[in-house]
Design brief:
This protein is an alpha/beta fold. The chain is 40% helix and 16% strand. Strand 5, helix 6 and strand 6 form a beta-alpha-beta unit. Helix 6 packs across helix 7. It catalyses: 2-deoxy-D-ribose 5-phosphate = D-glyceraldehyde 3-phosphate + acetaldehyde.
């Protein structure tokens, strides 16, 4: 376990794991531009924006990520696949797709896997595919099986949450369970409701290898420079 004073994580360490995110439906092109400028200033890894914001010019090594089937996950697989292919063609290096939660709750995990596989086929490597499972809405058993199916379908990451579901966002428990399930084979992205340095630290301690944050600057202020 990490120490409570957070000295084991520096500001730069944490910044290198952040997807700086703006997915509000009312976000304007000007606000997206401000997001990119702030991301460069903060030294984060990536920006995550809505598909309509693509193509997006990003400075330096800043990664451009987008979402697919967002936020409900209830889109037809063919629609998700087309959305992913379009995003990749417009320069998105990473795609965060939402699983079909209805299929998860019905126990139809073959459909869940096929849905993910359709997006993977439409946006093959080197595009990075992250699978949002909406962990706060799931049982532990459902979390585990979603992670297994995401891995089987060729995903690169599993991700906790959209940040838009009424059940809530990321929890350290879910992140820990996801990490235990995928081991070091896949990344684990914690996203949704992470607004403080302490919350971020808890996710990292639990095994998160990426953080989805909209308030990145505030979170980073809580970590030491070195």
């Amino acid at each position: 376990m990490r120490t409570d004073d957070m000295t084991d994580y520096t500001r730069a360490d944490v910044a290198s794991l952040i997807d700086h995110t703006l997915l509000k439906p009312e976000a304007t092109a000007e606000q997206v531009g401000a997001l990119v400028s702030e991301a460069k200033e903060l030294g984060v890894l990536a920006v995550c924006v809505s598909p309509s914001a693509l193509p997006l010019v990003a400075p330096g090594n800043l990664i451009v990520a987008t979402v697919c089937g967002f936020p409900s996950g209830a889109h037809a697989s063919a629609v998700k696949a087309e959305e992913a292919a379009d995003a990749a063609a417009k320069g998105a290096a990473e795609i965060d797709m939402v699983v079909n939660l209805g299929a998860v709750k019905a126990g139809d995990f073959d459909a869940v896997e096929a849905d993910i596989a359709a997006v993977r086929e439409a946006a093959p490597a080197p595009v990075v595919l992250k699978v949002i499972i909406e962990s706060a809405a799931l049982t532990d058993e459902e979390i585990v099986e979603c992670c297994r199916r995401a891995e089987a379908a060729g995903a690169d990451f599993v991700k906790t949450s959209t940040g838009f579901h009424p059940s809530g966002g990321a929890s350290a428990h879910a992140v820990r369970l996801m990490r235990q399930t995928v081991g070091e084979r896949l990344g684990v992205k914690a996203s949704g409701g992470i607004r403080t340095a302490e919350a971020a630290r808890q996710m990292l301690d639990a095994g998160a290898s990426r953080l989805g944050l909209s308030g990145s600057a505030t979170v980073l202020e809580g970590f030491p420079q070195a």
